[in-house]
Each structure stands twice: as structure tokens, then as C-alpha cells.
Amino acid sequence: MTEQPIVVLGATGRTGRRVVQALARDGRHVRSASRTPRGPGAVRFAWEDPASWEPTLSGAGALYLVTPDGVPVDPAFVEAAVGRGVRRLVLLSSGAVEEMGDQRLLDAERLVRDSGAEWTVLRPGWFDQNFDEGFFAPAVVAGEVLVPVGELRQAFVDATDIAAVAAAALTRGGHAGQVYEVRGPEALTFAEAVAVVSRVSGRSVRFTGDPEAYRAALTAAGRPVEVTEAELAAFAALCRRGDDEPGDVVERVTGRPPASFADYAAAAAARGAWRG
Q: What percentage of the chain carries pLDDT values higher than 90?
């Protein structure tokens, strides 16, 4: 019997492409779906284009569900997925969604829980790759990473480890109905993480964690006041939540320990992540 394909949304993104790789290494039938499909068997998918949903979902048995930042999960898409036979949903959410009031992701979690399919929710901490593939990368090159969290400790986690947990939840039993806080093996302050990046990259990079500095920088950049204040309120809620504790989800689910931030940074530097 032919294996039903596993659909990976955001298949060219930070976690999506790594989920595709993990599933392919395991010999799984993967259907990569993204706005700009790449590779054999890849399909075009766009949230705002329901015509792209049918070829994405047709015949699929499982789905890795992720949306771009700021884009909500469309309830009609989840309904369509389950109606077309998708039996397992794995949602990429985020850590501290309640504390930071991320209604978009809270709504997405509710949708998968109420979908009627088996579901697993992943709530990762800050991605290591934010520093070389994400929104901190330009700040590293510019020489200052500004996040208004002071000395708060966070369990930064490698996107490859998040993808490994997702791949396991998509293909193996025992993960249905679980909300996994996916964290790295150590809790670092942003200052400590930035110091590691500075050392391995050979760049002079400092960290600033003062909320007033954040407010001043965003005001100078022309960010609307209400947006800046909403972000500051969310960061303040994160600080009230307190320091992260390192997590064991990666090792429990995959059978191997998560990568350290230092190992991530060394590998990124070796690839030339912060050159130029």
C-alpha cells in the first residue's frame, strides 16, 4: 500500500525545510508546500489562495502546520484538511503564548485541538537561528542586539531539534494530545548568547536590554507608538513569567540531546553566517 504523503507547510522556512529533511532521511513520502515551491513533488501553497489548498491536501495523512509571522491559521483550511482525510496535525506555536497574549497562536492551538484529528502542539523557545537566519541577523551585523528583557534567561533551541520533534510527532505514536515546550539544554541571558555570537563570528556585538532604549530606537525608526508599546507590554509579560528552565522534550522524543547554543553558533560561523 502506498504511504500517504506528509504535507509540510512553510517548506522553505526555518523549521519547515528542516522538517522536510528529517522526514526524507527517514524515507517518508513528503509533500513540500510553500509560496515558492522548490524540488521534485513540491506544490504551491498560499493562505490567501484557497485554490492552492486542494493540491496541497489531496491524499495526505498528516500535516505540519505553520504560518508566517502575523498570519492566522484559517479555520476553513483546518476543516478542509480533516475533511480530506488528514488524521494527524502538528502545529508550530511558540513558548509563553499565554503570557505574551499571542491571540493568533492561541486561536491556532484551539483550532487543532477541536479539529477531530490527532494533534500535537510545539511551543519552542527562542530559535538559535534567529541570530543568523532571522530577525536578529541584521542586528548582529550592525553590532547591537536590542531586546527589552534585561537579564532574563531563555532556553534557546536549535531549529533542527524543533524539526526532529515535529518529524517524530508526525510519524510515530504516543504524541497525540501533547503540548511540547521545546527548549534547549541551557538557559542563557541574551547578553551571554550575544557574547557567544560575537566571539565565534569575530564581530564586535553588544546586547542592550533596556526597555527605554528599545522605545527610543523604535521611535527613531518611525515605528507607530501603539505598536512599540504593545511590544514592550508583551516583553514585560515575558519578564514577569521568569527565567526558562532547560527542557528534556528533545531528548525524550528523539532519543538524543538537544544542541547547545555554543555548538549552533560555531557551526553557523563556520558556514560564514556573519561574514560580509
A: 95
